[in-house]
Amino acid sequence: MKEAENEQLFQELDNEVAATCSGGVAYLYENDGFNQGDSGRRLTFYEGTDDLRIYNFNDETSSIKITGDKSWVFYPDINNQGAPVTLRPGEYNLSQLQQRGIRNDSISSLRRSDIPASRVLV
Question: Does 107 score more than 70 pLDDT?
Fold first, then answer.
């Protein structure tokens, strides 16, 4: 394939596809059960954020979905401070988050890990 054709292919990738190829997406849901019935807000992150207050979503997360092949690290304080909790790709309702040490409405920052999910202990 010619170089120009390669460039064309990469330019046609939308943000979600590109993020999935590069490690995945973290979806934060306002309500437990992934906002069933469209009853809450959802934020989509491709890289993470040091401060969820920017999105008016500080201490508002009750369920999480993670796609791709990378783990994500969640923090109770802004600027990636506090006791981190690392989650592998998957779906986590409130009960599952609590089992892993994340209390309801307690996430203030997050980042995508450089460590492949297959190397993270559950």
Answer: yes
- What distance, in Å, lies between the first and last C-alpha atoms of the chain? 41
Q: Is the pLDDT of residue 22 over 50?
A: yes
Q: How many CB atoms lie within 10 A of CB 86?
A: 15
Averaged pLDDT for residues 73-98:
97
Task: State the DSSP string of 49-115.
Answer: ES-GGGGT-TT---EEEE-SSEEEEEESBTTTBSS-EEE-SEEE-HHHHHHTT--TT---EEEEEEE
pLDDT at 116 over 80: no
CATH tag for 3-119 (out of 2.30.30.60, 2.40.128.110, 2.60.20.10, 1.10.10.60) = 2.60.20.10
C-alpha dist (Å) from residue 97 to 1, 5, 12, 102, 111: 45, 44, 36, 5, 16
d(CA 88, CA 76): 18
